[in-house]
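During the reporting period, we have paired protein sequences with C-alpha cells. One record among many follows, to show the layout:
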Amino acid sequence: MELLGPVFKPIGFSMYTSSLVNACRTWRKKPKQLEVRAVNHKFRKTFRPLIPILLISIVASTGFCKPMDKGFNPTAYVNPFIGTAAHGHTFPGATIPFGMVQLSPDNGTDGWDWCSGYNYADTTIIGFSHTHLSGTGIGDLCDIRFMPAILTLNSETDTTKLLDLHSVISHNEERAEPGYYSVMLKSFNIKVELTATERAGFQKYIFPQSDNAVVVLNLGHALNWDRTTEAYLKIVNDSTIVGYRFSTGWAKDQRVYFAARFSRPFGSSLFYVDSSLVRSRKDVRGRYVIGAFKFRTNADETIYVKTGISSASIDGAMKDLDTEIPGWNFSKVREAALGMWRKELSKIRVETPDSSLKATFYTALYHTMMAPNIFSDVDGYFKGADGKIHRAVGYKQYTVFSLWDTFRAEHPLFTDTYLPTKRANPSRARWNTLTMTGASLRSQNFLTRKPTISIS
C-alpha cells in the first residue's frame, strides 16, 4: 500500500474510506494497537502503527509526499455502476470531484430505489438531467433533463409522445468511467455520450438519418418527492436557449437556472405548456414546460448540446457555460474530467495483486467526492439559504451537506486529503448557511466540537 511515499504491501487490501479515517483516529489514541492486514480476503482489524497515518494524514500536513506517479492510474479501477443496483442509490453519470453538475441518465421510475434517478434493474431511460444525489435515502433534483429522439410532432395528439418520451436500453451498451457516460438508445438508434466540467454538462448525440430528429428539454417532469413549481424556457437564437426550473421537495425552494447551446441551428421548435402545444413563441412559462427542437440529420451525424447551470441567475449560467466550455471539443473536456479524477484519486495509492480489491477501494473513494457540491458560479454568485443572492469572494460556496455521520469519517478525509482551504472551503460554506438562516450554533453539534474541516 503506498500513499505518494513509503510503500507497504499487505497480502490484500479492501476497505472503505470511513474505515481508513477511523483507523487514523484510533491510531492517534492507541498507536501500538494498529495494524492493517488482509488474510485470504477476510480482514481482521489489527493495525500496524504507521499505516493509517501514512494513508490519510501525512498527505496534506507534511512535505514528504512525492509527485504523482505518471504511470499510476486509479481511474481504471473505478466502476461507477457499483452502487446503482438494489438500495445503493448512486448514479453512473458524468461529474467531476465535488462538481455542481452531475449529468446522468434518469429511468423515470418513482420509488425509494430510484432516489438517485437511476437503478440498474431498470432498462428504460427518459432523459439525461444535470443534478443528482448520490447515496441518499430521499430522492430529489434531476433538474434540466434533455432527451434526443426520433419523433413526428405535427398535431395536438402528439403531446402524448412528449409526455411519455422514453427509450429502451441494454446494459451491454452502457459504459461509464469517472467523468464520462455513454449509452445506446435502442428505441431511436441514437448513441448518447456525456461528460462534465464543474458547472456545465456536455452531451454528444450521434443520430441516424432522419427528417424527424429532435432534442427535447423537459422542465416539468419530476421524480419521487420533487415537484416543479414554475418553469421558464426562452429561445435566444436558433442555437441557444435559456430558462429555469423552480421546484419543491426535499429542498423546499430549489432554483436551477440554465443556459444551453446546440452545435448547429435547429430547424423548428415547439413548446408544451401545462396542457397544450404552443407554436410560434419565443418564450413560455408554466408549471409543466417542455421544449422540442427539430433537426434533419444524416447517418451518424453528431449534434452536441452544452449546458451551464446556476443557482443565482440565467446570466450566471451563461457565464459558467462560456467560461468552462468555450468550444466544441468533447474529447478535450472528457479528458480534462478524467484528469481531475486521476489527480484526486491518486492521493491514496493501494498496491495489491487483486484488481477486484482495487476496484472496491477506488470506487468507494470516488463516491466520497460526489458531495458536497460547488454552488457558486464562476463569478462567485449563489442563492443563499435566506433566498437572497450572495457572492463568494476568495472561496467557493458549497451545498448538499449531509452531516449524517459524515463528520465521523468523511470530513476528516476531506480535511487531510482533498480540500485545501485556500481553494475550497466547505466549512465556510456551511457557516454561511447557518448565519443566513439565523440558526443557533448550540443546535449544530458539529460546531460545538472541534471542527473537522478548518475555517479560514
Observations:
- The two ends are 33 Å apart (CA to CA).
- The mean pLDDT is 78.
- Residues 330-345 form the longest helix (16 residues).
